[in-house]
Design brief:
Blueprint lengths: L19 H17 L3 E2 L5 E3 H8 L4 H6 L2 E3 L5 E4 L4 H10 L8 E10 L11 E10 L4 H18 L5 E6 L3 H16 L7 H9 L13 H5 L10 H16 L5 E2 L11 E8 L8 E7 L3 H4 L7 E7 H12 L9 E6 L1 H17 L5 E3 L6 H11 L3 E6 H5 L2 E6 L7 E4 L3 H9 L1
Parallel strand pairs: 1-5, 7-8, 12-13, 12-14
Antiparallel strand pairs: 2-4, 3-4, 5-6, 6-11, 7-9, 9-10, 10-11, 14-15, 15-16
Length: 424
């Protein structure tokens, strides 16, 4: 392999230290909010049996038909890298017997894999933050989850997002609509592309989700699902809307919104941006009451959403620039043989005594001058200076790097107290 050939797999990215602060902020905010809303973390495998995704996501989806990273393991089993989190989480709830007469609110975060054409905001390994609730049938939890997503998005600082909302109704109310759609698109077969023709047989609703620009007027004139909703579906949807109205969350009812995955029912929603090219969705979700039984569990209502971390981080970068990593509070300069013998020990003592202190130690030696340059570059507020003379006398110099102030000399035993005082 030549040097130039060493690249990550196509569509899979390294997140370098200069970029991780944005990720950490998003994940930290999400974690704090999930805990505040009573959601608990669940961690599930990154690979599952391929059959799980076929059964849950559906044979007629792009994901199952062309986007899965599937391989045979050494034992001959077909495994697939998870393209989304919901299937694995539902599998885990069933496998662990967590659904019988129980309610759960859970969250999960991590990498997902889809063999798509890589472009801005669309990758083959990407990351999602995901929430799911099991055992709640009413519109209140749908609304609560949307409120949670709204609060998280607001807290990150992303701007100019639009919430699109729709109802897919119950499976029964969709059946009648399905027939109407088959009749409609069937009458325009010559205009459909290969994907849509395939969907016409398997899952005509998915044609509405097509991104093909040539199909957009045909789709715009298709019959609306909203007109086929039964009374119960309508009431559920009105309930969601009322809760959102009550807390002042703006939304657009978009009767064309259908989700890419087959298992949704009732509420579906998407947070959209116009600032990432054609990758508009930053967070999508909805109710999927039928999925648990579809996977062999007992009937359990469920609702959830997933947020694309790459898209949020990219939007934040476009709108606010990259946040920088937290600089150390202090940088320990260690010059001379005696100082080197004692420097790490002093650093550990300071860490024992000041747990909040962010202290970067100059490892690897160097002159006073070059170490002070590194101290300055680190962004630290102070340099703690330890030469042989200081070491002999068990003192250290404390030099302010950001404001004009005389350097002071402080005994090792007094140093923790002095630093703590300055940190507050
Ligand atoms: P899209 O319409 O953009 O393909 P999707 O409907 O396939 O999105 P979901 O399966 O609902 O997306 O996944 C939830 C979120 O994950 C999306 O809203 C998006 O932010 C993000 N996402 C999906 N696919 C990718 C990808 N290939 N790369 C980066 N983020 C993605
Ligand atoms: Mg997709």
């Amino acid at each position: 392999m030549t040097r130039q050939q060493i690249q990550p797999p196509r569509g899979m990215n390294d997140v370098l230290p200069v970029h991780t602060p944005a990720w950490q902020q998003l994940e930290g905010m999400a974690r704090a909010l999930f805990s505040a809303y009573g959601y608990q973390e669940i961690r599930v495998p990154i690979v599952e049996y391929t059959a799980l995704f076929k059964r849950s996501i559906g044979e007629y989806t792009d994901i199952v038909q062309k986007e899965m990273f599937t391989f045979e393991d050494p034992g001959g089993d077909s495994l697939t890298l998870r393209p989304e989190a919901t299937a694995g989480i539902v599998r885990a709830m069933i496998s662990n017997g967590l659904l019988h007469n129980q309610r759960h609110r859970v969250w999960c975060a991590g990498p997902m894999f889809r063999h798509e054409k890589p472009q801005r905001g669309r990758f083959r390994q990407f990351h999602q933050i995901d929430v799911e609730a099991f055992g709640y049938a009413g519109p209140d939890i749908d609304a609560e989850q949307i409120m949670l997503s709204a609060r998280l998005l607001r807290r990150t600082g992303v701007r100019r997002l639009t919430l699109n909302l729709n109802s897919l109704g119950t499976a029964e109310s969709r059946r009648g609509y399905r027939d109407k759609l088959v009749a409609y698109f069937g009458a325009h077969k010559s205009r459909l592309d290969a994907d849509s023709l395939r969907r016409l047989e398997g899952n005509p609703l998915r044609i509405l989700d097509s991104k093909n620009p040539d199909l957009q007027d045909l789709i715009a004139a298709a019959p609306l699902l909203t007109e086929s909703l039964d009374e119960a579906s309508r009431q559920h949807f009105d309930g969601v809307c009322r809760h959102l109205d009550a807390v002042g969350i703006d939304y657009v009812v978009n009767p064309r919104l259908v989700r890419g995955l087959d298992y949704y029912s009732h509420t579906v929603f998407e947070w959209l941006t116009t600032e990432l090219g054609s990758q508009g969705a930053v967070c999508s979700g909805g109710r999927y009451d039928g999925l648990v039984t579809q996977l062999g569990g007992e009937p359990t209502p469920a609702v959830g959403w997933a947020m694309g971390q790459e898209r949020i981080v990219e939007l934040l970068r476009v709108q606010h620039g990259d946040p920088s990593a937290a600089a150390p509070d202090a940088y320990l300069v260690i010059a001379g043989a005696a100082a080197e013998a004692q420097g790490l020990m002093l650093a550990e003592r300071l860490r024992d005594a000041c747990p909040k202190l962010r202290l970067e130690v100059n490892c690897g030696g160097g002159s006073f001058k070059s170490q002070l340059k590194r101290a300055d570059k680190s962004g630290a507020r102070w340099a703690i200076i330890l030469g042989d003379m200081e070491t002999d006398r068990r003192v250290a110099g404390l030099k302010s790097l950001r404001v004009e102030a005389p350097q002071v000399e402080i005994g090792w035993d007094e140093l923790p107290q002095e630093l703590t005082k300055r940190l507050d």
